[in-house]
Amino acid sequence: MKYSQVVDYIHGLGRFGSRPGLSRISAALAHLGNPHEGLNVVHVAGTNGKGSTCSMMASIFRAAGLHTGLYTSPYLDSFTNRFGLDGQDITPDELVAVVEDIRPVAEREGLTQFEFITALAFYYYKSRQIDMLVLEVGLGGRLDATNVVTPLVSAITNIGFDHMEILGNTLGKIAYEKAGIIKPGVPVVTSVDALEALHVIAGIAQAKSAPLRVWGKDFYSRPISGDLNSQTFDYSGWVNLGSLELKLLGPHQVVNAGLAVDVALGLQLSITAGQIRQGLREALWPGRFEIMRTCPWVIMDGAHNSHGALALSRTLDALLPNRKIRLVTGILSDKEPAELLRLLKPHVLQVYACAPSIPRATNATELASIASELGLAAAPYESVAIALQTAVRDASPEDVVLVAGSLYTVSEARVGLAAL
């Protein structure tokens, strides 16, 4: 098979939909020799911030000299983005080889798309004899395909309202699904601050005799200063570390970084303060308040739910106060477009509504109508690229063009921006 055929094949598995449960992937992995067993894993769940936190953890482990895998979703620029190894993506040739190896087993067991991709990841990382795997949950936790592992530590970033049709319509129900990654006796670290959700997590951890550390109680990360280039913060917990530098921007990233540091130090791998500093300083995660251009400013952020939109709004308050935003946005129909726009409304001068090229996207005309009903100036555009092009053309040198609403929108905007 060629690389393009492999990607088409994997995307074609999406027709089987999502079928929560661990029986199919467990059977497939057994036929493949259980490659997930014996891997040193940090397992990360949460509503938002998983990818950023995973990226920071992986960067710290790389700085400490560990041969590190990073499994995340979705991807922004290339399907190979999902499978990181020592800061680089899996190569197209490697991807082809692994798919050809596991395809017969996967088809016999009837794996869904995400199950196939997860089995592929375990098989690939086992073959590369990695020292550490940072493993991001796909959806929820309890029934997610990644939950076949017994990790060294489980981490839960935060709990908010998303995927409620699957995970439940209260923070407690959602927390129950996320906390499904907690294993007996395995330490848990969380930055969840919603009391309803934290109560559920604490109860499950106690029932499973899993030691629990909570941000704001057992460890802290406090911002010191920041601008549009980087920010600094202090960490206190296992040790005290001052003036840590982070290129990922926004107050929420300080919390994510505190979680990443606490997890890394808690593993007792003799990771030094210098390695922590280096790892955080070098950590990058595209599409998260990512400054793509200046004059005019073009910033891209994957905020796609109310929790993410609130974090984005606070970042705008902190870094771009009193600046009006030209918002290029495409939002999936199973999210809450009106709520997301409501949270961003105080910052927005004009909405450029569009729809990324996936079936679940809200129609651009409908999205513009929702924005108009909120009192925002809005117009629909036939593609993400055209919406972005128009916003950049309309902007003065001091204006800010912000792309947000979905990582799918950000992905298409990155391609569109490169063509401008």
Strand and helix layout:
Blueprint: H1 3-12, H2 23-31, E1 41-45, H3 50-63, E2 68-71, E3 83-85, E4 88-89, H4 92-109, H5 113-127, E5 132-136, E6 153-156, H6 164-167, H7 171-178, E7 188-190, H8 195-207, E8 212-214, E9 220-226, E10 231-236, E11 240-246, H9 251-266, H10 273-282, E12 290-293, E13 297-300, H11 306-319, E14 325-329, H12 337-344, E15 348-353, H13 364-373, E16 378-380, H14 384-394, E17 400-404, H15 407-418
Helix pairs in contact: 2-4, 2-5, 3-9, 3-10, 4-5, 7-8, 11-12, 14-15
Radius of gyration: 21 Å
Q: Return the CATH architecture of the largest domain.
A: 3-Layer(aba) Sandwich
- The beta-strand count equals 17
Query: What is the overall pLDDT average?
Result: 95
Show unreliable segments.
none
Q: N-to-C terminal Cα separation, in Å? A: 34 Å
Q: What fold name goes in the CATH topology slot of the largest domain?
A: UDP-N-acetylmuramoyl-L-alanine:D-glutamate ligase
CATH class of the largest domain: Alpha Beta
| CATH H-tier superfamily of the largest domain | Mur-like, catalytic domain
Quaternary state of the chains: single chain
Strand order of the largest sheet: 4-3-2-5-1-6-7-8
Largest sheet: 8 strands, mixed
Helix-strand category: alpha/beta
Tally of helical runs: 15
Helix content range of the residues, please? 40-55%
Please supply descriptive tags for the structure shown above.
six-stranded mixed sheet; alpha/beta; UDP-N-acetylmuramoyl-L-alanine:D-glutamate ligase; 2 domains; 15 helices; eight-stranded mixed sheet; 420 residues; Protein-Tyrosine Phosphatase, Chain A; globular
